């Protein structure tokens, strides 16, 4: 089946640039060259001479198609593309997506109540997380942006750790020094998320190059949004990955908006996948609300990245149903009707639930039982996180240097002197001693 994916959709989406060449040939009359000397010999590109002035139009290439497996009712469109996943795995897909959704709702409300400082939901993008995570090997290295919590959850990251990080309590592996939703886990090969957009892209390429030199059965997957693809780091990363032939998957979640900037104001070309051929990267566009389509694309890209030592670009078309973050009010730049359409008519959770119902793998009773159980699990972790103390204040100075330099030592001593004099004005009883 995966080979057919490669032969059909992949050949159509990956090799759009060859169509441009053939179309370009039809646009003007070219001379027939009779000797090698009359053909271009430039080292920078492979092409032919023409004798007519004609600029390349941006719409020469028709839109890259969107690969999908299921329709909106959960029906498999082409049986040859069905990944034939067992019931247990599909149910795990669904439970991970819905558990993530439940955690989002509770932590979002927690921020609105002033219990945590910040939060970003994953509403509407759950299929991109779970479909991609399921197609990876556990040893594959993940560079996330800040909307890939489902990847970590699928890999087994516990709810207690999600909550501890968002609350910045004493159980937080980052010791309270990161903003909420900036997760990281060495054991699960998930690199700690950083706030600046696209900084992870060239870093991921460097890691992929190191993995290539190790010659191991591993790849790197790097997630980012279509807004981050406008950053200079994205272009540098693409070019390095292509020229150094790195085993990496660039996974772009095109969710329609970069904070308040719609895609119509973000770029004029045909999305992000269209940029791949320009860098020499194999590329495909998939329906990000179809967890099976995402799974198939990532699985095949991973196989070929390992076998061929080359990068792949996957653009997953989806929709950000929630606000960009708790600092954003999306009603200021999009309509309620638009959001409701994606929430009610084309949601990745609804689509896989339809599929499970069609297969007889799920019913309303199981739905009610799981919803109740998942909410209880999240609430238990939530309540536990709230009860825990904050990390010791001195930990803000640790873990950066093997030996603390003098200027950091002076800052630490200055803090302790300040707290000794004015400690009564600080809630030190909330911190570990």
TrEMBL record:
Signal peptide: none annotated. Keywords: Metal-binding, Mitochondrion, Oxidoreductase, Potassium, Thiamine pyrophosphate, Transit peptide. It catalyses: N(6)-[(R)-lipoyl]-L-lysyl-[protein] + 3-methyl-2-oxobutanoate + H(+) = N(6)-[(R)-S(8)-2-methylpropanoyldihydrolipoyl]-L-lysyl-[protein] + CO2. Its cofactor is thiamine diphosphate. GO terms for biological process: branched-chain amino acid catabolic process. One of its GO terms (molecular function) is metal ion binding. Gene3D superfamilies: 3.40.50.970. Its main location: mitochondrion. Its EC number is 1.2.4.4. It comes from the Eukaryota. Pfam families: E1_dh. Residues 94-394 form the Dehydrogenase E1 component domain. One of its GO terms (cellular component) is mitochondrial matrix. Belongs to the BCKDHA family. Heterotetramer of 2 alpha/BCKDHA and 2 beta chains/BCKDHB that forms the branched-chain alpha-keto acid decarboxylase (E1) component of the BCKD complex. The branched-chain alpha-ketoacid dehydrogenase is a large complex composed of three major building blocks E1, E2 and E3. It is organized around E2, a 24-meric cubic core composed of DBT, to which are associated 6 to 12 copies of E1, and approximately 6 copies of the dehydrogenase E3, a DLD dimer. Interacts with PPM1K. Together with BCKDHB forms the heterotetrameric E1 subunit of the mitochondrial branched-chain alpha-ketoacid dehydrogenase (BCKD) complex. The BCKD complex catalyzes the multi-step oxidative decarboxylation of alpha-ketoacids derived from the branched-chain amino-acids valine, leucine and isoleucine producing CO2 and acyl-CoA which is subsequently utilized to produce energy. The E1 subunit catalyzes the first step with the decarboxylation of the alpha-ketoacid forming an enzyme-product intermediate. The branched-chain alpha-keto dehydrogenase complex catalyzes the overall conversion of alpha-keto acids to acyl-CoA and CO(2). It contains multiple copies of three enzymatic components: branched-chain alpha-keto acid decarboxylase (E1), lipoamide acyltransferase (E2) and lipoamide dehydrogenase (E3). PANTHER family: 2-OXOISOVALERATE DEHYDROGENASE SUBUNIT ALPHA, MITOCHONDRIAL. This is 2-oxoisovalerate dehydrogenase subunit alpha. It comes from Pleurodeles waltl.
